[in-house]
Design a protein that fits this description.
Blueprint lengths: L2 H7 L2 E6 L2 E6 L1 H10 L4 E5 L3 H9 L22 E5 L7 H10 L5 E5 H6 L22 E3 L6 H16 L4 H10 L1
The structure holds iron/sulfur cluster (SF4).
Length: 179
């Protein structure tokens, strides 16, 4: 990796000394930096948005570039659940169980109109949950029907920024209320 780029992104200061350098930083910052660069997704694709999510992992968009490549259909090693698609009432308890099975700290991305609000099924549908946040807390919402893969990449990078800032979900929410 380019050392200059690493110096820019790493949370610390490099003090140049003859023959090398001394790096000073805070342990919390280093942990958050490492955590944000190794987010492993649990993919929860239920309908059309899942196709865009799959294409984000493909060679054209390649989310491995940012450390998200260990995507699995398992909650065991996951840090972030990507909800891509419609959540029906029958699936809501499954989503909650998967979220509960993930180890802390854990994050949630709601991808697309259905996952954020019920989307085209908001009206006149008895079976659709009107947004993932009726079931589990959501950190990042993505608009669109469906959102493009670039939007998912942007959401993942937004989540990285949130984690690097070291704030909890509650702190981020209260900060946003005061803005
Ligand atoms: S938001 Fe649109 S594209 Fe995504 S799952 Fe719903 S209907 Fe399908």
């Amino acid at each position: 990796m380019d050392v200059k780029k690493l110096e820019e992104s790493f949370p610390g200061t490099v003090h140049k000394v003859p023959g090398g350098g001394i790096l000073t930083s805070k342990l919390d910052d280093v942990i958050n930096w490492a955590r944000s660069n190794s987010l492993w997704p649990l993919v929860f694709g239920t309908s059309c948005c899942a196709i865009e999510m799959m294409s984000t992992a493909g060679p054209k968009y390649d989310f491995s570039r940012f450390g998200f490549e260990v995507a699995r259909a398992s909650a065991r090693q996951a840090d972030v659940i990507i909800i891509a698609g419609t959540i029906v009432n029958k699936m809501a308890p499954v989503l909650k169980r998967l979220y509960d099975q993930m180890a802390d700290p854990k994050y949630v991305i709601a991808m697309g109109a259905c996952a954020t609000s019920g989307g085209p099924f908001f009206y006149n549908t008895y079976s659709v949950v009107k947004g993932a946040d009726h079931v589990i807390p959501v950190d990042v919402y993505i608009a669109g029907c469906p959102p493009r893969p670039e939007a998912l990449l942007h959401a993942l990078m937004t989540l990285q920024q949130k984690i690097k800032s070291g704030l909890t979900r509650e702190q981020i929410k209260s900060e946003m209320k005061t803005v």
